[in-house]
Amino acid sequence: MACMTSLVVRRTDVSDLGFGACPVRLDVPLLDDYLIFLAGRCRPNTVLATAYDLKVFFTVVGKAPQDVVPADVLAFMTAQRTGQPGLGGLQAVPPSDVDAAMSARTVRRRLSSVSGLFAFLQVRGDVTANPVPRGLPTRRERHRPRQGVPLVKARRTLPRILEPGEVDVLTAALRRHRDRAMVAAMVLGGLRRCEVVGLRLEDVRVGERRVFIADGKGGHQRLVPVSGRFFAAVAAYLESERPAGAETDRLFLVLKGPRRGRPLTAAGLDEVMDGARRRAGLAHATCHELRHTCLTRLREAGMALEAVQAQAGHASIESTRIYLHLADDWLASQYRTAAEAIDAQMLTRSAPPPIPPDTSPPVSLSLSLPSSPSVSAFSPRAPRPDGASRSLRSLRGTGREGIRGGGRGGAR
To answer: Confidence band (pLDDT; 50, 70, 90) for 3?
Structure first.
């Protein structure tokens, strides 16, 4: 197997590559064929990340693709997760890696890259089966064969955002109008880093106060509104800083050095952010944190979740739901509303039931003597019913002994 400890990169500036161009080679025929195939489906940055993942895997395993078995994949997981040699004496990590132990998300992404490679090779007939397991089997494997336990479980963490004061300090630490415009595009428009450096002159629509994203994540396009502060910074940059006579239509260019007038790369934007963060004395302030800050503030301001999804360019709204948890005011208001409703129900149940109003007609307490010669109903001489008269007559006719006998009989 060829040596795979280093990558042979054809172009370092992947922003100049068109869709379908492969920016990297590994000098291994099977792997290079897969990267060329992947370049027709994914963006150049995805191809670069996949190439590096494959390099790490085969450096750690030390086998040709045809010789890899599931035990090698599990041992690779152990080596990457713990930073220690895995089963079979595998090397922990390549010497070029700074961090020994990798996060669960990194291990999961590398397994995905390796699984995609072997799926491609299996379709071509180079290997008989994919050595990357779909998951660990469970007791319900017979009834639900595809619902096993995932190989890697990554914790769900909330992204970090910047407070308004930190954004002001970071903006004040920027030295050029170009840098202020790029930061404004991320913190006020929610643009990604690659979308910022990929903007062209015709993408900035000043009259509409919107920006056209021609080459977003996954090659998707969208039109998003941005604050007027971004357009003011862009106007100042175009008037006083952008090199005259530049041969490219990219908006943001390199302003000094031998690459002056060339398009600014993602690495150059990271360098600008690192310098501004050091001058501002902030512990964290990355490009993606600025994007998270923008989308969180939009949600806190009452923007609908579907609108936030369109602004962010998310393919699935599940990716946008994370900002529901970041927007503390929204969650707190929802909780207060629910708690007040629960408290009202509890008070209603604990209170005594109300006394129903008396709807019967009022009774008169005044007694008036009848004017007719008939006997009053309250008079002791009032006529009794026939049954009551017969009962009284029968009692009068009964002797004393009969009553006593009846009493004794009843007692018995």
So the answer is: low
CATH topology for 164-330? hpI Integrase; Chain A (1.10.443)
Q: Fill in the amino acid letter for 308.
A: V
pLDDT band of 83, cuts 50, 70, 90: confident
Tell me how far apart the 2 most distant CA atoms of the chain are, in Å: 141
Six-digit token string for 399: 């002797």
Each domain of the chain, given as residue ranges in start order, spans 8-124, 164-330
How many C-beta neighbours within 10 Å does residue 192 have? 19
Tens digits of residue pLDDT in 179-222 = 999 999 999 999 999 999 999 999 999 999 999 999 888 788 99
What DSSP line would sit under 380-408, residue for residue?
Answer: TTPPPPHHHHHHHHHHHTS-HHHHHHHHH
In single-letter form, the type of residue at position 301 comes to: A
Give me the phi and psi of 127, to 5 degrees please: -130, 155
CA–CA gap between residue 93 and residue 80 (Å, rounded): 7
Q: Which residues, 6+ apart, have CB-to-CB distance to 35 below 8 Å?
A: 22, 24, 25, 26, 47, 50, 51
**Catalytic residue set:** 192, 217, 284, 291, 314, 323
Q: Which of 60-64, 224-228, 370-374 has the lowest mean pLDDT?
A: 370-374
Q: What residues are paired with 267 via a beta bridge?
A: none
Distances (CA, A) of 181 to 16, 129, 276, 280: 22, 51, 14, 17
Retrieve residue 239's tokens: 């008037």
Neighbours of 220 (CB within 10 A): 12
How many of the other CB atoms lie within 10 Å of CB of 249? 11
The strand pairing partners of 200, in sequence order, are 250
User: By C-alpha distance, which of 215, 312, 223, 316 is closest to 266?
Assistant: 215
Q: How high is the mean pLDDT of the chain?
A: 80
Judge whether residue 412 has pLDDT over 70: no
Q: What residues contact 253, with CB distance under 8 A and at least 6 apart? A: 178, 242, 243, 246, 260, 261, 262, 263, 264
Residue 200 DSSP SS3 = strand
Determine contact, residues 134/148, Cβ cutoff 8 Å: yes
Q: Are 131 and 68 in contact (CB under 8 A)?
A: yes
**Which is nearest to 209 in space by CA: 235, 174, 177, 171?**
235
